[in-house]
């Protein structure tokens, strides 16, 4: 059996995601759909609005066959690393095609990746973010605008695939209706961005979401209090105020003395200030909101370089759930697994390769009360 | 002018404390009453129920002339160190007498101190707390029972005074009515223990407290939500879950691998478990509740050996408030100060000698919202 892969966050699973699954099924009705999904903390530096188990269930009940967790050390990364880690897992699972949304599905991402091999941003521009200087260098090289978020991510997938021997066929799909950063819901449409959905939830517009998410997601939204940064903010604030800059320096992603600024700005704010208010006092041209938000997550989870090394040296496949087709595909993979396949967290693994994921789960649990790892078995959706 | 000293916590200031002040005034009507008071975290390992400024004000309005903060590094210590640090400050202030409550005011504490010089507990008894073995050794040596909490503290004061050259005259005063550990209010009396007062507050019996505290304390109790361990518990829990045992090991007071037990017991508890429930799962004969509670504070505040060293190497006198008599006494001391006198926290001192106090203030502020150090001036009570 062949498999088609998606790298995603499903925060939460909405009609746009469902549309993508349906497209894949119409093209490849017999193939297994494999999803690599962020766990409880996401690439852009925020907690997931619902935990990984709830979101995996949403995916499985909407046509996905196999859900793999992108470990927190692999996920809370700049886009290039995030993409690389996702592609690496899909390759290890023997997935032959990657479907991804793009603002310009007509671009030849594979060719672009070859062209920009070795291209780097100008790191000397100290008043700019590295990502911005990299984008400029890329555009100058290939002559096309790749500044849109999904195009950029597509290029990152293509580059990772190039670096990993082009084992996977890339299938960009034109994004429809909602834009990635859209914050408003359009009542003439049925697809909205995940951030518009979360924003409306936060503003109390819950019933209206029914039009933009599958029924199962809507039920989950009704039954759970969606998690956001403000839930973790008291913990992050406490952590930054009680840790010396010397110790903060060892947090993954800390650079250029920003630890002093993080702490100083925080000390000056009233206790009533929100996460977002703090971020805006810290943000600079060089340290963008997203980069700082990601750093805030690594501080919150106490992630250090050795946690990242553990993942890089010992990657694994962490199973969150499967359908009967997913199980069949998995059995095929298991005959000759490239990475170990983890179906449950043992006393040993929680202190070794799964240490960072386990810690992230414990922190997430402080807000939701739900155990994330111990005694959890992959979801079986065999209906 | 001469001064009489008290070492205390005022958690909160109650009628028993007022009675002691009145006794001192009747014996020494012209002397300055100097109090060394714990700040926002207390000797027995708990947060103060109201912040140090509120409690200093209560003291000043009830007859105390000068309130000095016992720094957090000097205060969150076993009784012997706590006593030593308090006596050291009083001596540096040139205080000539120390008044303290005792269950046996007839004991000759000065003589006892000389007798037990060099006496140590049997540290090899691994199933007992050190404090218990020390008490046994002391009783064996002097032939009197000093197991009652205030007698024990009196002996600790006497020992510290002995070690510091017996500069201070010791005046034990018979404790009346309430016992230290009493949890109930006795309606036929007007004095209750501070813990009985806090316990009744926690149970919602607020109006009844009017009989046991001066008016100003009662007003403060009405106007403030009293702080307790459960307020800080989510932060402590987060800290323990996200810190490796290897790093926890560097916390002041951590010993004998207890860091593993602290973490393991916590991981197994539901998120709904309270601080007290966790403590009871961790507690052993060797690690008593009080020792663990003190350890919980040093973890919460990230206190390490170098913080304690900073205090030991550079002790100081941190002024919280004074009356006109207190001011006069202070001017006398200032002519030839033994330790630097701190009236406000500067940008420099918050990063050097006051680092630990500043951090403790920031953590306390997370709960109350009130800044504890920056821009705070000593209270002047000149009426």
From TrEMBL, chains A, B:
Primary localization: cytoplasm
One GO CC annotation: cytoplasm
EC number: 6.3.4.-
Residues that coordinate or bind ATP: 7-20, 101, 150, 175-176
GO biological process: tRNA modification
Enzymatic class: ligase
Record keywords: ATP-binding, Cytoplasm, Ligase, Nucleotide-binding, RNA-binding, tRNA processing, tRNA-binding
SUPFAM superfamilies: Nucleotidylyl transferase
This protein's record includes keyword tRNA processing: yes
Subcellular localization: Cytoplasm
Keyword Nucleotidyltransferase: no
The protein's role, per its UniProt record: Catalyzes the formation of N(4)-acetylcytidine (ac(4)C) at the wobble position of elongator tRNA(Met), using acetate and ATP as substrates. First activates an acetate ion to form acetyladenylate (Ac-AMP) and then transfers the acetyl group to tRNA to form ac(4)C34.
Family designation: Belongs to the TmcAL family.
NCBIfam families in the record: cyt_tran_rel, PRK13670.1
UniProt name for this protein: tRNA(Met) cytidine acetate ligase
Species annotation: Ligilactobacillus ubinensis
Upper taxonomic lineage: Bacteria, Bacillati, Bacillota, Bacilli, Lactobacillales
């Amino acid at each position: 059996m062949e498999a088609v892969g998606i790298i995603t966050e499903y925060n939460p699973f909405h009609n746009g995601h469902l549309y993508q699954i349906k497209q894949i099924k119409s093209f490849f009705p017999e193939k297994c759909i494999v999803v690599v999904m962020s766990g409880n903390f996401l690439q852009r530096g925020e907690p997931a609005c619902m935990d990984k188990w709830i979101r995996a269930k949403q995916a499985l009940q909407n046509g996905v066959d196999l859900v793999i967790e992108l470990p927190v050390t692999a996920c809370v990364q700049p886009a290039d690393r995030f993409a690389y880690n996702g592609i690496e897992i899909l390759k290890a699972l023997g997935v032959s095609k990657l479907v991804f949304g793009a603002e310009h599905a007509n671009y030849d991402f594979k060719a672009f990746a070859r062209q920009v091999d070795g291209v780097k941003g100008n790191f000397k521009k100290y008043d700019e973010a590295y990502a911005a200087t990299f984008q400029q260098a890329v555009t100058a090289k290939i002559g096309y605008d790749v500044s849109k978020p999904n195009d950029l991510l597509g290029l990152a997938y293509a580059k990772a695939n190039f670096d990993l021997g082009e084992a996977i066929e890339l299938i960009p799909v034109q994004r429809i209706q909602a834009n990635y950063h859209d914050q408003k819901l359009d009542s003439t449409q049925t697809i909205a961005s995940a951030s518009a959905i979360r924003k409306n939830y936060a503003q109390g517009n819950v019933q209206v979401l029914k039009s933009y998410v599958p029924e199962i997601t809507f039920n989950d939204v009704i039954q759970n209090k969606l998690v956001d940064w403000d839930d973790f903010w008291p913990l992050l604030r406490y952590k930054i105020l009680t840790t010396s800059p010397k110790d903060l320096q060892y947090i993954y992603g800390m650079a250029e003395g920003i630890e002093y600024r993080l702490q100083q700005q925080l000390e000056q704010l009233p206790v009533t200030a929100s996460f977002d208010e703090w971020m805006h006092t810290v943000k600079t041209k060089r340290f963008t909101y997203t980069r700082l938000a990601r750093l805030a997550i690594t501080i919150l989870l106490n992630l250090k370089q050795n946690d990242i090394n553990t993942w890089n040296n010992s990657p694994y496949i962490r199973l969150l759930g499967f359908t009967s087709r997913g199980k069949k595909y998995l059995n095929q993979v298991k005959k000759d697994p490239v990475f170990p396949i983890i179906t449950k967290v043992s006393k040993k693994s929680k202190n070794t390769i799964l240490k960072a994921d386990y810690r992230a789960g414990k922190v997430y649990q402080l807000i939701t009360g739900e155990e994330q790892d111990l005694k959890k078995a992959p979801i079986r959706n065999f209906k």
